[in-house]
Amino acid sequence: MGVTTYTDEVTTPIAAERLFKAFFVESNNLFPELLPGLIKSIKFIEGEGGAGTIKQIEYLEGGTWKNMKTKIDEFDVKNLVCKYSIFEGDMVGGELETISYDVKIEACGDGKCTCRTISKYHTKGDSVINEEELKRGKEKSEAIFKAVEKHLIENPSVYA
């Protein structure tokens, strides 16, 4: 199995605690509401949101993906860290065994924060990652981030 690692960092005018809550505490309610053209539902299969929780994400028909299952490996509200992996669904299979994410959100002054994400793509055998699929996945992630950011800016009391 090979591993390809990408690191991404985004600074936003949103307070760190609010961003963490939107992405990792309330995402099962927030994402389908903000992205009705992309996400149909997010349901807890096992657990209640902390480490060990398994979620099933259903996308709308006709899109690139139909569904995926994620597992929260580490959930630290105090330090604003969430580590999770995609282990089943349309994003994995083929050449990818799993995708793992290590996300840390840190305050950086003036009510802003920085979101650092380390993404690890675990391939099967000697498989090579399809760069076009990675690009599509990154574009969807950026769209989700921008939608959440916009919602929090427009609604300053949400998750405050």
From TrEMBL:
Q: Which Pfam families match?
A: Bet_v_1 (PF00407)
User: What InterPro entries does the entry give?
Assistant: Bet_v_I/MLP, Bet_v_I_allergen, Plant_def-hormone_signal, START-like_dom_sf
Q: Boundaries of each Bet v I/Major latex protein domain copy?
A: 1-155
Query: Which SUPFAM superfamilies is this protein grouped with?
Result: Bet v1-like
Provide the protein name.
Bet v I/Major latex protein domain-containing protein
The cross-references to PANTHER family, in alphabetical order and at most eight, read:
MAJOR ALLERGEN MAL D 1-LIKE (PTHR31213:SF157), OS08G0374000 PROTEIN-RELATED (PTHR31213)
Q: Give the source species.
A: Cuscuta epithymum
By sequence similarity, the record places it as follows: Belongs to the BetVI family.
Q: Name one GO molecular function term.
A: abscisic acid binding
Tell me the first and last residues of the signal peptide: none
Q: Name one GO biological process term.
A: defense response
Which GO cellular component terms, listed alphabetically, does the Swiss-Prot or TrEMBL entry include? cytoplasm; nucleus
